[in-house]
Amino acid sequence: MRFLARLFRRRRRPVEPIREQEAYARLHGERTGEIVSVAAHERKPIPRRTGDMTGELLRRALEAKIDARTAAR
Fold first, then answer.
1. For residue 18, what are the contacts with CB-CB under 8 A and spacing of at least 6?
2. 48-66 as b/e: b if 16+ CB within 10 A
3. What is the pLDDT of residues 37-53, one digit of tens each?
4. Phi/psi at 32 (nearest 5 deg)?
5. What is d(CA 49, CA 18) in angstroms, rounded to the nearest whole number?
């Protein structure tokens, strides 16, 4: 069994330390001369429908939904 373990064991080469520039290039990629500009985008406000919806209308709509659920059972 030891013979097979030695036969199929992988030999690892010692890891050599890398320079800071190589590590940065591996992590972030190569630097290019491209200039990137970012434009600010202003979001449009969401229109709210509150003028015709009062608390009383909302309560009645909720009660109608609850009644419809109980009638469906």
1. 26
2. eeeeeeeeeeeeeeeeeee
3. 888 889 888 877 666 77
4. -120, 170
5. 62
Output the six-digit token pair for 35. 């200039």
- The 3 state secondary structure assigned to the chain is CHHHHHHHCCCCCCCCCCCHHHHHHHHHCCCCCCCCCCCCCCCCCCCCCCCCCCHHHHHHHHHHHHHHHHHHC
pLDDT above 90: residue 12: no
Measure the N-to-C terminal CA separation of the chain; round to a whole number of Å: 71
Q: Check whether 19 has a pLDDT greater than 70.
A: yes
